[in-house]
Design brief:
The structure is a homodimer. Chain A is an alpha/beta fold. The first copy, chain A, is built from 14 helices and 16 strands. Chain A has helices at 24-37, 50-57, 61-73, 119-130, 148-159, 176-187, 202-210, 227-236, 258-271, 323-337, 342-353, 356-378, 403-412, 444-459; strands at residues 77-80, 84-87, 107-108, 170-173, 193-196, 214-217, 220-221, 224-225, 239-244, 274-278, 300-305, 317-320, 392-396, 415-416, 418-419, 433-437. The radius of gyration of chain A is 23 Å and the shape is globular. The two termini of chain A are 33 Å apart. The first copy, chain A, binds a DNA duplex through residues 1, 23-26, 49-51, 59-63, 65-66, 68-69, 79-85, 236.
Chain lengths: 460, 460
DNA sequence: AAATTTGTCTATTTACATTTC
DNA sequence: GGAAATGTAAATAGACAAATT
C-alpha cells in the first residue's frame, strides 16, 4: 500500500490551463508530460483523483480521464481503480544500456558481454565452412523460417535443456533481443499488457515500448512470481501474457524453482496467457531444470540465444513457437530483418551438430566459475549468494544508497555498474540494489580490480 | 428510429448486430473485419456513410464512427471526408514475400535475390579477416552506434552516390529492411501517417504495420510524386513524413528525375516532413544522381544497403541520420538487435576501404545488364523500357488480366512473379501490372526459360 | 460487510472541417 | 460558389467495476 504523506489535501498537482489553447485534454496531457519530464512531478507521486481535478478545473470527469489515459499510454503514469494514479518510476529512467564506450579508464561491469576467449573455436568453424564447395551461398539471403539444418540444430540445442520439440516448431532469429522483439510484435498488439517480474531485463522494456505494449509487475515472493499474483494480473489487469527469465534472472540472478515453472505452465493454460520465456542463461546452469516450455509447449514461446553461452557475435537465437503463432512470428522476423545471415546461422548449426558447442559451453562455465570465486571472496557479505556459473551478480546496497546513487559513485571510482532503477517495471519503487556483470572485464585482473573498488565503496 | 424503407437504398453492407453481445462499436468492428476477411466485402467497396448506418442500426453516429475508426487503424479501411469510407485494397493482400521455397520446379522471379557469383570476393575478404590477430573480437558484440571504421566506410560508401556526410551522422544496421524498421520506429509514432508512392516496397508496408503507422499514397504523375500531392497530403492528411525509392523504384523500376529530388527536398523542409529515402538501388544506376538527402541532409534519413549492390549475406546497411533523430535511431536499432555482427560489418568496411566493393559493383552491373538484354529481346513490347542495370522490371498487362490473376497463371506455368496488388498502398485500385526480378534466376538459361514462359502467357 | 473512493467504459451531443457536386 | 454529403473531434453523461477503508 502506498505510504504517501501528501493526502488529498492539498492537491499534489495544480495545473493551469488558462494559458493553453486547443483541446483541453491534450493541453492537460502535455502539461502533465512536461511537468514529469522537468522534474516538477517526481516518480511515485500520487496525482489528484480524476474527479477532484475535474472539479478544480471545472471540466468533465471524462476529459481528465482521457488526459491521464494518454499519459499512461506513453508510459508516464500508472493507474489502478480504488487506489489512484501515480507517476511511473521508470518514466524518466534510461532504457538503453549501451556497451562500454571503449573508455579504457573505466572497468565495464554494467553491460553483460561474454569474454572473447571461447571464440577461437567459433572462428575455426567459420574458416572451415568457407572451404566447403557451397560456401558462396552463405553470402546470399537465408529463408526466413530457417533451413532444415538450422532448425534441426535448434532441436538439438533445446534438448540440452531437457526440452523436446520438433523442427516444425523452431525458427531462427538474429539473436535473443531480435527474437524477443519479434515475439512481442507477433503475439501482442498495441496497448496489450504483459506481466513481468517486478524487475526485469531492460531490453524487453525498450522493445515493448516500441510497440506500445505495457509491462506490469506481477506480485512476486522470494524473486518468483506467485500464483495469486499471476491470476490477479490476468483477471484484473487483463494481461495477455508473461515475460520471464527462469535461469539467472536479470537482474536478481535467481534460478526459478521447478514447482514455480510447473505452476506458471499450469496457470498460463488456465488463464490463457502466452508466456515469452527467455532461456538465455539456461544452459549456463549446471544440470539445468527444464524450461516452462517443456510443461506447456502450446503456451510458451521459448527463446534461447547463443550469445551468452557460445558467442555473441553469432547473432543467433532459436525460438520454439506454438503452431498458433508460427506464421505471425516468421512474418515479424521477416519485417524486422528479411533474413538472418546464412553464414552465421550455419556456423551456429555446425557448432551444435558435432559437439563443439558443448565444449565451448563447458569452457565458458569454467571461466565464469573462476570469476565468481573471486567475486565471492572479495564481496563476501555484500553480494547475494549464487551458484557459480552466474554471468551476473546482484548486490544489496546499504540503505543510504539508491541504485542510481551507487551507480554514480562507482562511475567516479572507475567502475560501471547498473542500478536497480534500470530494471524497474511500472510504478514499483526500485530496490536499493545494483547488478554487476561477471563476464565483461577482459581479464581476471581487471575483474579483481573492479570488484575491489566496489568493495571500498560498500565498506565506507 | 429505424425506418422501413431501407431496402430501397443500395446499402453495400447491412450488418446484423442482433446476435452480438457486449459493446456495439466493438461488435460492429468485428463484424466488419470478418466480412472483409472472408470476402463478403471486397477491396474497394464503398461502405455506407456513417450517418446512414447509424440510422439503419438505430445507433448514434459516433458509435459507427468509432467502429470504422477501429478498422481503419487495423488497416482494413480508408476513409476521407466528403468522399466516404472504402475497404482497403491491401486489406487481404499478402505482405510477406517469402523467398523461393526451394521448389526446383519453379523459376523464381518474384522475390529479388542477387545472384551469388559476385560473392567470391566477399568470401575471400572474410577469410583474410579471420587471419588478422584481433579476429576473435569479430565474434563479440559490436557497438550499437558502429565503430569508427564502420562509420568511415559508410561515409566513403555514400560518397560514391555523390552524397557527402560525415561519420557522426552514420549508423550501421543489419540490412536495409532492418534500417527501415528502425527508422520508422525511431521517427514516427502509432497512428502517424507517412506518404509513399502509390505502389511501394511491401517490406515497408509490413514494417509500418508492426508499429501501427499508416501509409498513404501521394498523388503521382509519371511515377513521381507531385509537389501538389505532397503538400496536399501534408496539409490535409497530416502526414509526418515520406518514404521514397528514387532509383529503380519498387515496383515500377522508375528513376526519379533530378528536379523531383530537389523538389522533395524543398517541400520536406517547407512542410517539415521527414523523408525516409531508400537508396537501395542507387549505386546500380550508371552515373547515379545524388540522393534527396544531399539536398536536405537535416530532413532525410538515407538508407543504403549493401544487399543488392554487394552481397545480401552481409546483412549490412548504412544509414545517414539527422542529428535530431540520431539517438532515437541508435536506441531503436539497439531494441531490435542489440548489435550487428562485427564480423559482417567489418567485412563490409574492408570491401569498401580498398576498392573491392567497386569491383564487385561493376561486375554486378555487368551481370544485370546482360540479363536485361535478354529480357528486352524476349519481352519486347510487353516490358516497360528501362536502363540496363535495373534489378527489377515492370510489365504492363493486357486489360483482361489483373496482377493477381497473372501471378496465378504464371505460377501454373512454373514462374513466380509479383502482381501489383502486393505493392498497392491505401485504397488505390491496383494497376494491371506485375514486377519481375532480373537477378533471382541462378543462370541465364533459367532466366531465358522463365521470361519465355511469361511471353507465352502475354501473347495468348 | 458496507460505504466510499477511484478509475474505466460506452454511448451521446454538439460543433466543425473538408470534399463533392 | 454555395449546399449537401461525409468524416472527425471534443466534451459530456451515466452506468459500472474494482480497490480501499
Amino acid at each position: 500500500m502506498p505510504v504517501n504523506s501528501f493526502d488529498n489535501y492539498p492537491m499534489s498537482w495544480k495545473p493551469d490551463l488558462s494559458k493553453t489553447t486547443g483541446a483541453k485534454y491534450l493541453a492537460l496531457a502535455e502539461l502533465l508530460e512536461s511537468d514529469i519530464k522537468n522534474g516538477k512531478l517526481k516518480a511515485g507521486t500520487k496525482l489528484p483523483p480524476q474527479r477532484e481535478l475535474a472539479d478544480f478545473l471545472d471540466l468533465n470527469l471524462s476529459t481528465i480521464s482521457k488526459a491521464y489515459k494518454l499519459c499512461e499510454q506513453r508510459g508516464l503514469l500508472s493507474a489502478s481503480v480504488g487506489n489512484g494514479t501515480y507517476v511511473s518510476s521508470d518514466a524518466t529512467a534510461e532504457h538503453v544500456l549501451l556497451c562500454g564506450k571503449e573508455d579504457s579508464h573505466m572497468i565495464e561491469m554494467g553491460a553483460i558481454v561474454p569474454f572473447v576467449t571461447s571464440n577461437l573455436k567459433v572462428k575455426q568453424y567459420t574458416e572451415s565452412l568457407m572451404k566447403k564447395p557451397d560456401a558462396l551461398n552463405l553470402f546470399s539471403y537465408g529463408a526466413p523460417e530457417g533451413t532444415r539444418r538450422q532448425r534441426e540444430a535448434g532441436v538439438a540445442w533445446f534438448e540440452k535443456s531437457g526440452f523436446y520439440t520438433d523442427k516444425e516448431h523452431i525458427v531462427p532469429a538474429a539473436g535473443g533481443q531480435n527474437a524477443i522483439t519479434a515475439a512481442l510484435a507477433a503475439c501482442f498488439g498495441t496497448h496489450d499488457k504483459i506481466g513481468t517480474e517486478p524487475m526485469t531485463y531492460p531490453g524487453v522494456k525498450s522493445a515493448a515500448k516500441l510497440f506500445g505494449i505495457h509491462l506490469v509487475p506481477v506480485q512476486s515472493d522470494y524473486n518468483e512470481m506467485t500464483e495469486e499474483g499471476i491470476r490477479y494480473a490476468a483477471q484484473n489487469e487483463n494481461i495477455k501474457g508473461l515475460y520471464v527469465i527462469p535461469d539467472y534472472q536479470n537482474p536478481t540472478a535467481h534460478i526459478m524453482s521447478l514447482e514455480t515453472r510447473k505452476m506458471i505452465a499450469r496457470v498460463a493454460k488456465d488463464e490463457n496467457l502466452l508466456v515469452i520465456e527467455d532461456g538465455i542463461n539456461n544452459l549456463l546452469v549446471d544440470r539445468p531444470m527444464p524450461p516452462i516450455a517443456s510443461f506447456a509447449p502450446e503456451q510458451v514461446v521459448y527463446i534461447s540465444s547463443l550469445s551468452k553461452t557460445i558467442s555473441p557475435g553469432l547473432r543467433t537465437a532459436f525460438v520454439h513457437v506454438p503452431d498458433k503463432y508460427h506464421e505471425k512470428l516468421v512474418t515479424a522476423l521477416y519485417s524486422l530483418n528479411i533474413s538472418i545471415s546464412p553464414l552465421l546461422a550455419t556456423v551456429s548449426a555446425a557448432l551444435i551438430e558435432d559437439g563443439a558447442a558443448d565444449e565451448i559451453l563447458a569452457e565458458r562455465k569454467k571461466g565464469i566459475a573462476e570469476r565468481n570465486l573471486i567475486i565471492n571472496q572479495i564481496l563476501d557479505g555484500f553480494v547475494t549468494p549464487s551458484r557459480l556459473t552466474a554471468p551476473l551478480r546482484y548486490i544489496q546496497l546499504p540503505e543510504y544508497f539508491t541504485g542510481k546513487s551507487f551507480e554514480i559513485c562507482a562511475k567516479q571510482a572507475g567502475v560501471e555498474v547498473c542500478g536497480a532503477e534500470r530494471f524497474a517495471v511500472g510504478n514499483k519503487m526500485p530496490e536499493k540494489t545494483v547488478r554487476i556483470s561477471v563476464t565483461t572485464p577482459p581479464t581476471l585482473e581487471i575483474l579483481t580490480d573492479g570488484v575491489k573498488r566496489l568493495r571500498e565503496l560498500l565498506r565506507q
